[in-house]
Amino acid sequence: MTRRIAIIGSGVSGSTSALIMAGAGNCVTLIEKDRNIAPLVRGFNFDSIRVEAGFHYAGELDEGGAFTRLLIHTGLWPRLKVKVLDPRGFDTVSGPGMEPFSFPTGFGELRRKLKERFPRDTKAVDAYLDGVEKVSSSFPYLNPRIGWRQAKELSPFGTFDEMSLTDFIRAHSDNDELLRLLSAHTALHGVDAKEVPFTAHAAIMGGYYRMAGNFEGGGRALANAIEEELHARGVELLTGATATGIRLTPGGEVSGVKLGDGRVVECDTVICSTHPAKMLALTDGAPFRPAYRKRLAALKDSQSALMVFAKSDKPEPSLDRSNHFILPPPPSDPKNVGGTGKIIYVTAARLKDGSGSLGGFVALTPASFAPYAKWSDTRRGNRPEEYETYKSEALRGLLSSLEKSYPDMIGKAGRVGGATPLTFSNYTGSETGALYGVMRRVGQVNPTPKTRVKGLYLTGQAVALPGIMGAMTGGFLTCGQILGHEKLLDELGKIF
Predict the structure, then answer these.
(1) pTM for this structure?
(2) What's the domain count of the chain?
């Protein structure tokens, strides 16, 4: 049976869904309000540098890696070239009161280095890494050989789902420095260590611990590969088109998607990669139960961020193949009263000439949307002076913090650019500027791909995990619901 499928949103999950469904012989239309496919992943130019806004690095991009397998299935792998991050330390974590620690590639080497650093906490290190290995190898679509039924039984959202990362580590150690170090990577999924389930954190971090890398050309290379493969698979791309509603038949089945210009995309299946609560607004009158509506409306978003970037005449050499996480002082430190300090993630900005040379930096720190909410009805390029002043002060504060760790790089920085939660709100479509969509948090029940409306499905980080690989996994989970999970897992398992 050939389906007529409309997919709302061309982020990684939406585009993945389009590639899978078109590859299975269906007629697919991809609807994107921006003028470009995958706008957040694509990044942008600033002065002479390329700024990565939505993709910095990923795990398991090696031969035989889980992410590599997904990229092969979707046809993207031949169009991309992987750049491996430093296996001696793909990430370096530092902060007041602690010696820097570089995370090496491989569970064995990481285990050795952590035990060397924390000789009194070797059992805690084993418990943490054993848990991460077990969970990350049992997540559906990251290990297709276990099969869907077994994957459901071993689901990483089972045993530890009601235990946060903090609680899991605290159950094995009272070492504050170990907790701070192992919690640093929560910046990769936008949820505090006290809220994120250990299982969700483990499913994400397992891939990074096995191998970390990115693509030559960064997020733009990935976005271009996606667009090229969409064309190759015959997907109709409607960019600059806004979905304003999902049409239903009198019997309550999907029949089309209404666009802002009055057109209707006729279809029998809709995959919606927007925030689940926005799906409700698009399906006004759909037969959803009140409890379901209430649950979707109550889903909590992941964190937004303040981002600063600039070209520098003295870029930090260690950022070439490694990322840095700068921790705030611990809550017990008088300099961090109330524990309000925020982690800072620092990565390289490359020259936009395509040489791949270091040209500057990009830094992000968690930030709330609340202070920017009063300007939410303003548009990019036409913000009031009050907003610009507030933004400038926030960026100066972030630069001042960075200068303590990188005095030469910041001292030689040129024109500074930045983005606020309001900026990210415009790019992501999230009302709060959430970088990773709906969060995975203890006590929150996230939606599944299938809805009560026949032919209507959800995809995105809300149904899977945050990050690029998590978003792609969301596409596979949704398409598996339509095509059959065993079918897709069998195809993935045959790749290698």
Answers:
(1) 0.95
(2) 2
